[in-house]
């Protein structure tokens, strides 16, 4: 600002027109005062710089605003693309959900069909079970008919063999014969078709083994020794009944006896139960006693066995020559046999026979029970109705 300007004079922008009402009329000065007014030029240059600065600020502001608008447009475009992508994904999801719903409906339909098929299969299975039950009943009836025919004959034969073996062992103590009968009974029972009699074979085998073990080795050897003694009795020498005394007494009674000997002849029987006329009768009596000892040994009768051996030993001591080596050997054998008394108890038979009879009784009652069951079911069905 120059010195020639007024201090309070407002500055107007370049190109502005003054208001004629506000501008005070200046007094007309002389022309000599017009030369010094060329000084306000610096004020016009500052205004121009200010205008340029303001223009630059406006341009910068416009550029910033434009840049912000451009960024906003780019963001809007990206958001539009994201929204479009999301809309596309939503459409895809809707399509997928529609497909899943269709598949779910298809699965529900298939499950319904499967349930219907299962229901029909269950009904068929129940019918098949009923048919199987009827078939089992028919097979059972056929088995009963077979049992009443061929199997009944085999069971009768088995029962007869078991009863015969028991009676043979009880009466004659023939363990070998009874064991043979048990073997035949086992073979006959093996031909029976009914498996219910399979356990009976075990009982028969057990009694058969007991019969086989009822005669131990010592008993067999004792029987063999008794048989050998019976065979050797015929060769044993008898005792002489009239033995001459080498030294005859000389007393009065002896002389009287010799005097009467020519009139009366007296002989001793040596304690024999009967008057033995010849050697064959003595041998037969001893053989009979040995046979009784054998029978008592087989019958497990210790008392009769010991009594028979004592009778044989008494016969050898009274009727046979005790000085003969054969007789002494026979008596030693009898003494050894006397120590081998039968101690084991006889075999208890009859369990297998009782079991067979019980099984046959049960099978005889089974048809009656099976016939009574359908009758009871038919009487209950009308009252209670049929339930699926």
TrEMBL record:
Query: What top-level branch of life does the organism fall under?
Result: Bacteria
Region of interest called Disordered, as start-end residue ranges on this chain: 1-43
**Transmembrane feature ranges:** 47-67
Pfam families on file: HemX
The record's keywords, sorted A to Z, are: Membrane, Transmembrane, Transmembrane helix
Protein name stated in the entry: Uroporphyrin-3 C-methyltransferase
The species this protein was found in: Rhodanobacter glycinis
What is this organism's lineage?
Answer: Bacteria, Pseudomonadati, Pseudomonadota, Gammaproteobacteria, Lysobacterales
